[in-house]
Design brief:
By secondary structure, the protein is an alpha+beta fold. Helix content is 47%, strand content 17%. The protein has six helices and three strands; from the N terminus they run αααβββααα. A three-stranded mixed beta sheet has the order 1-3-2. Helix 4 crosses helix 5 and helix 4 packs across helix 6. This is M48 family metallopeptidase. Pfam families: YgjP-like.
């Protein structure tokens, strides 16, 4: 049986064949769980705000403040979004002010901390870099050196979730 590997379209044929083989053997979930055995403890919006703010304070001290961070049940992976960064502009007095919000898909409330960190780093990078270009990914890997591995593993998890329908954590 061959599954559609929509989350892995940009990867090599060899990589996709390896993932397909694990899916066919019903082993992909086991491989992911072995690499990431437990879920994080960030369970509510306040804890998520504190977590993201800690990353911002460590890596982006001079960046604009983050006004709101929350888990959002309206974000669906189907729309190719794991999280969203929005900047809402308002005129305050004679100045233009932007409020930055980060929203993370609720499905990542139950996942390894590495997955949550990858999403948080990605959305924080948008505070400084709007486009997904070389500078953006350089900033992501500055904040999280294993960014690309975690992104790939999130894609594996999404593939497993779509294939089996079962959450791993």
């Amino acid at each position: 049986m061959t599954a559609i590997l929509k989350y892995l379209g940009a990867y090599s044929d060899d990589t996709r064949h390896q993932v397909q083989a694990l899916l066919n053997q019903n082993r992909l979930g086991d491989v992911i769980r072995k690499r990431y055995p437990k879920a994080h403890d960030v369970r509510n919006d306040k804890a998520l705000y504190d977590y993201v703010q800690g990353l911002r304070d460590e890596f982006l001290r001079n960046a604009a403040p983050i006004d709101k961070v929350l888990f959002d049940s309206k974000i669906h992976v189907i729309n190719h979004a794991l999280g969203l960064h929005t900047a809402i502009s308002r005129i305050q007095g004679g100045k233009l002010k932007a409020k930055h919000e980060i929203r993370v898909a609720t499905m990542f409330r139950d996942c390894p901390i590495e997955f949550l960190r990858m999403i948080a780093v990605h959305e924080l990078a948008h505070v400084k870099e709007k486009q997904h270009d070389k500078a953006f990914y350089k900033l992501c890997t500055y904040m999280e050196p294993h960014y690309h591995q975690y992104e790939f593993d999130v894609r594996l998890y999404l593939t497993e979730l779509e294939h089996s329908g079962r959450k791993l954590w």
